[in-house]
Amino acid sequence: MAGSAPNLQIHRFPQPKYIDALKWLPPIAAFDRFIVLSLFDPSSDSSSIEIQSLSLSTHSPELHLLSTWPSHSRISCLSVCPFFQKPIIAAASLSGSLHFVVADAIEASIDDGFSVEDKGFHRAGVFSIDLQSSTCECVSAGEDGRINLSKIEGSRVVYGTVFDGKGLVSYTSARWASPWEFATGGLGFGVQFWDQRKPGGPVSQSPAKWIEGSSSGIVHSLDIHPSRKHICVVGGSGGTVFAWDLRWQKQPVMLCGGGTADPMAEGEVWKVQYDHYSQSANPSTQIPPVMMCSDDGILAIVEPGEEEPIELLAEPCAINGFDIDPQNPSDLICHLEWEEIAILMRP
């Protein structure tokens, strides 16, 4: 059984196209609220990036389209970081390309930036990217088993390959832990921790088998706490959410799924993210509350040692992703399989 969040405001915004990804944009002024999302139109087989503004001036929030940027291939994932007063948006595609564009909310535009479309970059779809907030360096992980690092230098993008699995492995998630370290995950529930100061391969490798009786699975999402880079929280197949601590690598902490008595979800956990807004019921725990969404249509907060997760949404369709506003962590956005954005505001 799951508890419910009291006094939760939920606002829904149907969209005319399929939503592949969405993120909060860093604000330009104190009261600015902007969302960037990638959309796919199956009728025209076209993809685009949009910036929408969130207006809170009326009794009910409203979303307004500000700008659109067309993409030549379908966008698979987004990441953003502040860059002076114009945030940088990184967008990767199912064709293996990477694009950096500039969001200008004042001018209500998305300015062309720089792209990497070389066949030597990724040979298949890029499933995860993450921008380093201080340098805008981008780590990308792909279906082809490649892990690349990219950054803007002058008027071009330079990149290098950290690892090339040559198609024998497939990566689905990547997340920075520090300016030099990042984690990746993919098939087999494996998680790797990399350090650029120690080239040649991952410096730590998780056990490939987390769930008793299961020999296969996929890591769909990773998150690393900014002040506890040694703890990686993982979401994957079978409703599984667990934490991997680099100090005790063979003892994962199961948060839900994986044979727990009362699983929150049974399908794929598409995303996990530390929830800096929720107060831990057990302050002594090393793992803060974690938000997750699943193919079962569940959006919830889970925490080790707690019998009941806190359910925020229960939908008749998949919740494919969400993002917690870094500046206002009480607010979050999520996108549903049935072409809808939901904005949740916690008291």
Automatic annotation (TrEMBL):
<keyword id="KW-0677">Repeat</keyword>
<keyword id="KW-0853">WD repeat</keyword>
<protein>
    <recommendedName>
        <fullName>Nucleoporin Nup43</fullName>
    </recommendedName>
</protein>
<dbReference type="GO" id="GO:0031080">
    <property type="term" value="C:nuclear pore outer ring"/>
</dbReference>
<dbReference type="InterPro" id="IPR036322">
    <property type="entry name" value="WD40_repeat_dom_sf"/>
</dbReference>
<dbReference type="InterPro" id="IPR001680">
    <property type="entry name" value="WD40_rpt"/>
</dbReference>
<keyword id="KW-0539">Nucleus</keyword>
<dbReference type="InterPro" id="IPR015943">
    <property type="entry name" value="WD40/YVTN_repeat-like_dom_sf"/>
</dbReference>
